[in-house]
Design a protein that fits this description.
heterodimer; A: 425 residues; 2 domains; 10 helices; 19 strands; B: 543 residues; alpha+beta
């Protein structure tokens, strides 16, 4: 076998989601040579881009920072037990400072209740400013407008559910659906991303604003699907708001997600700006081990393999949805990049339960890590002293159910970088 | 068609029992030709008839019987002899030619025989047959469950059926045909007759694309997992045959699924690595008088029972046994028996009159739906990308129904949500459209979505692994992470005692006013409640 190409960095971060990018930016800004390798584009693009800390535990959480302690005593082994309240707050502050152009508002002290495309008020702590006016605690009367060309936002259903759900939570509000028929190149079927780009065009935006204004009555605020621009989202949003003369808020849709695209781009730009490398389309296929020590990772990219040699590795490959974890036909769970030990449900337990909304045994499976985020072998010792895990690859959480995924990824990514920086001195 | 005033009752939607739960193979008869030439002959004769009357439901894939290294090489000779004896066209081709046509086949096959197998869309066949029946004056009541058979002395006089609201309807009939398949014993018992039907469970697994384009069979005595059927956008491997006690309650185990997928390796190496979408099962009705242990040895040929001569109970005919392929012949025989019981002789025309949409006798083709989509590319929205279901067709299906359909009813009619994402993307859209078009309450629409989520989960959950598990996690992320379905204001947990492998009962309860048909609403000039929907006047007016 021919000698493979070897390259060198201080840190290799595996994965370009929220955890990986957070760790990579922080490390690069501190002056370390960082390369981020990722198989795909990163999962941020699929996400509403709200930073949910903790929404349900299992009851509705109003004050995540305060309620987290009680939640953790009921959920031992949860990844939040690795993060102190100070670190969590610091990671949120860090994100706000690194997302100029996509300003974030809110903090872990209080959840907002923002409508989903189905009209459910969803608890979220730190959110793009373009969404904040949707907080049902703030409005008595809103309109929810959909575009007839956009199938991924159904305003009638969202409005009716939202009114009922808000009432059930003790917030009396009226919600009225609106239908916008502004034409988009004569096409009947326009994706949220295409619509977002279109809204960056002034003439189209003006036409939308005119139709909105004609339909609005005396509502306090108006919600639209989250399609208010990509690169120029801030100005699209503020411009539209000025034209309709009241707060406008975005409501996340099913993927693709324009807010997710914006956040991913802002963070990737920050990484490059800080001197970090980002190599997409690179799948980590194994560890480079020298003298029993982890010395780098082997990467498959463009039909060949190369090795990135480094002092530290951050594994932020995500959970089952992102491909960081996998299950085979026999039900065995594996960690896909480095083949780390990971345990599924006990053999006598089913992997999944018959009812969709049950809490499935497989649902919280992931890596076990020590307080320094180092993945553990079955004997309870770290697999490698210089390997750290961050984000959804760590087990113990039910992010989709808890509305905790972004907070876990942000804070553990932030923490992993902090641990490495401490070691680097 | 024979001039009777007829009403058909079905406890669920059409084709929800066994008919919609098979692999989609329109048998040439090859599968049974060695073991049961009579059944094979029946299959082939009906294969020819269905190609004539139901062409739009059939894809003329052709079938291949191949001898893999695990099969008896001598079976192919017996197979060819039996085909010749029964008149089933069969042509042996060189193994190399079979591999050229089907490159993913096991390269170590030694023999290959072509037969006129095809694939058939069960739901489409049932729907168009139902349409034809309605056009001939029949009345069809779906979601009407038979709760009792009425008798006057020794004569069955009809049935009592219960609809979804719990209301009971008494239907009087001169003759009742019990065509309930694996449930035939239960219905006959209501009339005081004993009919022994063994429910034989068969499971099938679908992969996310077509691994083969012809129906591929092992050239061996029929066994488990020896057929791969390319139906519509997927390939289906089947099947098993396990006797079960209750046709409504039986599990699907991970071991059975593993066995099925492993069996696929013999025909298509690498089958284990294919992305498997879903598993489901159906229960065959195997009629018999004395129960043997092994269900596969019971004849597949159907049985018509005139209960007057058999049990001394007049006015009731039971048709059971049989298989999808011979459904038309079974109906013919049953109605012949009914005519005889009524002392009349009226000829059957079902073998000659094509079903609606099949008049021009052109077969369905894998690209038919894509061609339709291209014609409406800019004019209509694609609601289900996997199965190319456009909004116009979805709306038409929603409006056509007298009672607002469930999303699962729509799935059976349009294949909505049957592709790789299993409804992950289309379900929200379809729910919104159902809500809007039928003026449902949001609560009813939400229930429809939750029921469909549960229904999809049922078939995905037992085999989740690999890429499909990844998809399920993304779908979870969409429904729970992004939409927060589990916190809809009125969501309650599903019933705790729902048995695995059985439909969780629908929780969609519609207020009486919503049960009005679209036609009634239009006639009354109603466009939903004006107060609730003040924005309706602003809805799109453009095409």
């Amino acid at each position: 076998m021919t000698e493979i190409d070897r390259r060198t960095a201080d840190v290799v971060v595996v994965g370009a989601g929220l955890a990986g990018l957070t760790a990579a930016i922080r490390l690069a800004e501190a002056g370390l040579r960082v390369v981020t390798v990722a198989k795909g584009l990163g999962s941020i693009r699929l996400s509403p881009a709200t930073i949910d800390i903790l929404g349900y535990g299992p009851d509705l959480v109003h004050e995540p920072a305060r309620e987290l302690q009680g939640f953790l005593s009921a959920h031992p082994g949860h990844p939040y037990s690795l993060v102190s309240p100070v670190q969590l707050a610091a990671s949120v502050q860090w994100l706000k400072e690194h997302t100029d152009g996509t300003a974030y508002v809110g903090d872990p002290d209080a959840n907002m209740l923002l409508p989903t495309a189905l009209g459910v008020p969803r608890p979220s702590a730190v959110v793009p400013e373009t969404m904040a006016a949707g907080d049902i605690r703030k409005s008595r009367s809103v309109a929810v407008a959909g575009f007839s060309v956009l199938k991924d936002f159904q305003p009638d259903l969202a409005a009716e559910n939202l009114q009922a759900a808000a009432a059930a939570l003790g917030f009396g509000m009226t919600v009225r659906p609106l239908h916008l028929n502004t034409r988009v190149n004569g096409e009947a079927d326009v994706s949220s991303l295409a619509l977002a780009r279109r809204l960056e065009d002034t003439a189209f935006r003006n036409a939308v604003a005119a139709e909105l204004t004609a339909g609005l009555r005396d509502e306090d605020a108006v919600g639209l699907p989250a399609v208010l621009g990509l690169d120029q989202a801030a100005s699209v949003w503020s411009d539209l708001q000025a034209m309709v003369g009241r707060p406008v808020f975005e409501i996340p849709t099913v993927p693709p997600s324009a807010p997710g695209m914006r956040l991913a781009k802002v963070l990737q730009d920050r990484l490059r700006h800080a001197g970090g490398r980002l190599v997409l389309g690179s799948e980590v296929v194994g560890a480079e081990v020298q003298g029993g020590q982890l010395a780098g990772v082997r990467v498959k990219t463009a039909a060949r393999q190369l090795a990135w040699m480094c002092r530290w590795v951050v594994l932020a490959t995500g959970g089952f949805a992102s491909g960081g974890l996998a299950v085979d036909l026999s039900g065995a769970v594996s960690e896909t990049a480095l083949g780390l030990p990971v345990s599924g449900p006990p053999p006598d337990e089913p992997l999944f339960l018959p009812r969709y909304l049950d809490e499935h045994p497989m649902g919280s499976v992931g890596l076990k890590v020590d307080p320094l985020l180092r993945p553990l072998a079955y004997d309870g010792e770290p697999v490698h002293p210089n390997l750290y895990a961050a984000g959804a690859v760590i087990g113990g959480a039910r992010p989709a159910r808890e509305k905790s995924g972004d907070g876990i990824s942000l804070s553990t990514g932030y923490l992993a970088a902090g641990i490495i920086l401490q070691e680097a001195g | 068609m024979r001039g009777f005033s007829t009403v058909l009752v079905e406890r669920g939607d059409l084709a929800t029992g066994t008919t919609g739960r098979f692999h989609g193979l329109l048998h040439s008869g090859g599968r049974y030709v060695v073991k049961d030439p009579k059944a094979a002959e029946e299959c082939y004769a009906e294969n020819v008839v269905l190609r004539r009357i139901a062409a739009d439901c059939i894809e003329d894939t052709g079938g291949l019987f191949v001898t893999t290294p695990a099969d008896d090489p001598g079976y192919a000779d017996r197979f060819l002899q039996s085909c010749a004896a029964t008149g089933i066209p069969a042509e042996e081709i060189p193994a190399a030619e079979a591999l050229r046509r089907e490159p993913r086949l096991n390269p170590r096959i030694s023999r290959a025989i072509i037969v006129p197998d095809a694939t058939v869309d069960a739901w489409k066949t049932v729907w168009t047959t139902a349409r034809s029946a309605t056009e001939h004056g029949a009345q069809i009541l779906t979601y009407h469950q038979v709760v009792d058979m009425t008798r006057d002395g020794d004569t069955v006089t009809g049935a009592v059926v219960r609809d979804r609201s719990g209301a009971e309807v008494r239907i009087r009939a001169e003759i009742t045909i019990n065509a309930t398949g694996a449930w035939a014993g239960q219905i006959a018992a209501m009339a005081g007759c004993e009919v022994k039907v063994l429910p034989g469970k068969g499971i099938m697994v679908a992969t996310n694309h077509r691994l083969v384009n012809m129906c591929v069979n092992r050239c061996e005595m029929p066994g488990d997992g020896d057929i791969i059927v390319p139906i519509r956008t997927v390939s289906v491997i089947g099947t098993t045959d396990v006797q079960v006690a209750d046709p409504d309650d039986w599990p699907i185990t991970r071991a059975e699924i593993d066995e099925m997928i492993t069996a696929g390796e013999a025909l298509v190496p690498g089958f284990r690595e294919a992305r498997t979408l879903r598993v489901w099962g159906g229960v065959r009705p195997l009629f018999q008088d004395d129960a043997p242990a092994e269900t596969r040895d019971v004849t597949r040929a159907h049985a018509v029972l005139d209960h007057k001569t058999r049990d001394g109970v007049a006015g009731l005919v039971t048709i059971t046994g049989g298989k999808f392929c011979t459904y038309r012949l079974m109906a013919q025989d049953a109605v012949d028996a009914a005519c005889k019981a009524l002392g009349t002789s009226r000829p059957c025309h079902t073998a000659d009159e094509p079903l609606p949409d099949s008049q021009d006798q052109s077969f369905y083709h894998i690209s038919s739906r894509l061609a339709g989509r291209e014609r409406t590319l800019h004019a209509d929205q694609l609601i289900c990308e996997c199965e190319l279901v456009r909004r116009g067709r979805l709306v038409a299906e929603i409006e056509r129904r007298e009672v607002p359909p469930s999303l699962d009813d729509i799935r059976r009619a349009l294949r909505l949500g049957m592709g790789p994402c299993q409804g992950g993307f289309c379900m929200y859209r379809a729910t919104g459209i159902l809500h809007e078009e039928r003026h449902l309450s949001a609560a009813a629409a939400d229930d429809a979505m939750l029921d469909f989520l549960q229904e999809r989960w049922k078939g995905v959950q037992p085999l989740l692994h690999g890429d499909q598990l990844r998809q399920a996690w993304l779908d979870d992320w969409i429904f729970q992470g992004v939409l927060d379905v589990e916190h809809l204001p009125h969501v309650e947990p599903a019933p705790a005692d729902a048995p695995a492998g059985h439909d969780v009962p629908s929780r969609v309860q519609l207020p009486a006013q919503e049960r009005k048909s679209a036609r009634e609403r239009r006639a009354a000039g109603q466009r939903g409640s004006g107060q609730q929907r003040p924005a309706r006047s602003q809805k799109r007016t453009q095409p």
